[in-house]
TrEMBL record:
Name this protein carries in UniProt: MFS transporter
Keyword annotations: Membrane, Transmembrane, Transmembrane helix, Transport
Domain of life: Bacteria
InterPro entries listed in its UniProt record: AmpG_permease/AT-1, MFS, MFS_dom, MFS_trans_sf
Entry membrane topology: Multi-pass membrane protein
Compartment list: Membrane
Principal place of residence: membrane
Length: 435
């Protein structure tokens, strides 16, 4: 039963809930890559280690049913946020120990599963506490709040790490190595503090969330639901083409995601642009994220007017072709910050514009059926699997090829995306469009 009228306004808990979810995810999967790079790891290991932390978010549909079985959804949100607080606190403390990297990866791995569980429970609160009208009303707030996470994490935290390193701890920002530990310890203390404050806030204002009608009551029932959802998924017509679409649509973006920031901070002598963490934070976390948001809004408007089927290939072009900006920057290594910012903003804007098509295709074509929510999660999980696979190997490939040749490879990696978009099946009738 939905709580259509909560005593607390959704504006008190929806923004903070989705911001906290995004902060955890971005800290684990993007910020750690920059941290590893700062601390002296080569591109191969830095991208690989950060990419492994995507796994828990990729497989969360496998344990979502079990989260539903116990206590309230609010309780899981609060418990996971408190556990994440202790996790990041432990990370900051562990970095003061000798040979801390193995312990650090273990802690990050645990936090990633906590973060995935937090996502499941928080989405459950949103879906079961608000009726369909309220869900639509607060959808924009939800999306905007989530996107504040990347701005704070990839922008603010990375910027602050550079400021602390150079101006507070008085280390040379151009030298990567153990001196960066001091600044990054402070960053993880900050993330821990934000998370526990959010947990306390949500304890006061978040509704409990209702139980869904098909919530399993025991372990056996949860297993049966999971099995049935898999069987019904693979019974869909042309399911393998839809799986290929979900996995390959963002293939080139996966190869670019970790290496783009590395390219920005690597010295000019190594083929990079030699930017500081502060500049990286401003360019990626501010202008880049604003470009993504603007592109997403315009992309959604474009699809609403024209329909998805006639525009999908164009949206694929928008996602993939602007990657050439990184190839051009690797060739010319521009010194102008305006040129570099424009290059990143162009790529991010068109990525946001085109990626709308990916999400709408999953919702309208792959997900519909008996287990719509679960099958949508399967689709996003396949996308996450692509991001993990490409991230794990991207740094090693870049080291083998160098930046120029690697960005040529990124452009070649766009070809599978064009093929799957051209072949993508449309079996569900699209909702009405306007001309």
């Amino acid at each position: 039963m939905l709580e259509t009228k909560s005593k607390k306004s959704p504006l008190l808990w929806v923004p903070t809930t989705y911001f906290t979810m995004a902060l955890t995810y971005m800290t684990l999967t993007s910020v750690t890559a920059i941290m590893f790079k700062n601390m002296g790891m080569d591109n191969g290991r830095a991208a690989e280690y950060a990419s492994y932390l995507i796994l828990a978010y990729t497989i969360k549909p496998l344990f979502a049913s079990f989260v539903e079985m116990y206590r309230t959804k609010k309780a899981f949100v609060i418990l996971t946020e408190i556990a994440i607080f202790f996790g990041f606190l432990a990370v900051a403390l562990a970095m003061a120990l000798p040979n801390y990297m193995v312990l650090l990866m273990g802690l990050f791995w645990v936090i990633s599963f906590l973060g995935a569980t937090q996502d499941i429970a928080a989405d459950g609160v949103y879906v079961t506490s608000l009726d369909s009208k309220a869900q639509s009303l607060y959808c924009g707030v939800q999306s905007l709040s989530w996107n504040l996470g990347p701005i704070i994490a990839s922008g603010g935290l990375v910027y602050l790490s550079g400021k602390l390193h150079a101006e507070y701890f008085h280390h040379d920002p151009a030298i990567f190595g153990a001196d960066w530990v001091d600044a990054w310890r402070v960053i993880f203390f900050i993330v821990a503090a934000i998370t526990v404050l959010m947990a306390l806030w949500h304890w006061r204002v978040m509704p409990d969330g209702a139980r869904a009608e098909n919530t399993p009551t025991n372990f056996s029932a949860a297993i049966n639901i999971l099995k049935d959802s898999f069987v019904s998924f693979f019974q869909k017509k042309d399911v393998w083409l839809m799986i290929a679409f979900a996995f390959l649509f963002r293939l080139s973006i996966g190869f670019l995601e970790k290496i783009g920031p590395f390219f920005m901070v690597d010295p000019i002598a190594k083929g990079g642009l030699g930017l500081s963490n502060e500049l990286l934070g401003i360019i990626y976390g501010t202008y880049g994220l604003l470009a993504v948001l603007l592109g997403s809004l315009l992309g959604g408007w474009f699809v609403a007017r024209r329909g998805l089927q006639p525009t999908l290939f164009l949206l694929c072009c928008a996602v993939n072709i602007p990657n050439v900006t990184f190839l051009l920057m690797s060739i010319y290594q521009p010194e102008s910050l305006l040129v570099v910012t424009a290059g990143v903003a162009i790529e991010k804007f068109f990525f946001g514009f085109g990626s709308v098509g990916f999400m709408i295709y999953l919702m309208q074509q792959l997900a519909p059926g008996k287990y719509t929510t679960t099958h949508y999660a399967f689709g996003t999980g396949l996308m996450g699997l692509c991001m993990m696979f490409t991230g794990v190997i991207s740094g090693h490939l870049q080291q083998m090829l160098g930046y120029k040749s690697y960005f040529v490879f990124v452009m070649l990696a766009t070809i599978p995306s064009f093929i799957v978009c051209w072949l993508a099946p449309f079996h569900q009738k699209e909702s009405g469009t306007t001309e």
